[in-house]
Amino acid sequence: MIYSLKRSQNLPISLDSSWDFFSDPRNLQNITPPDMGFEIISGAERKMHPGQIIQYIVRPVAGFKTRWVTEITHVQEKKFFVDEQRFRPYALWHHKHFFREIENGVEMEDVVDYKLPFGLLGRMVHPVLVKPRLQAIFDFRREKLQEVFGKYPGE
C-alpha cells in the first residue's frame, strides 16, 4: 500500500529567500528533529540539482540507526524539486516540494508518497509508529521554520 502525507505552510519571506534556503541540502539538518540523529554524510556540498545523490544517517526510531540515500530527480528553480529514495529505510519515498509566491510571502507544499517494507507487518506498524512519526517530523519542521522566518500574518 502506498501512503501519502501532504502539508502546506505559508511563510512571510520572498520566493527567492525560500528557494535559497530549501535548495541548500545542508539546511535540512536544521529543520529535522534532533532525536532523529540526522547527519549528512555526503552530497550536500552544492546547491540542489537533478541527479544529486545525498547520503544521510538517520535514527527514525530510538536505537535504530540507518543510512538513507536520496536522489534529487527534478528541479524547476523557484517552483519545485523532487527527492526520491534510492536506499533505505522505505520501500518507496517520493517527496515533492512546491513553492508559490503569495501575498506577503510564499506558500510551501510538501507531498510525500511512501511505501513501507515488510508487507503486512509494515502495514500494521504504519498507523501506530510510522504515520505519527512522520507527522511529528513535519510538525517540528513547521515550528522550526516559524522560529527562523516568523509567522505568516493571520496564522
TrEMBL record:
InterPro entries: START-like_dom_sf. This is Ligand-binding SRPBCC domain-containing protein.
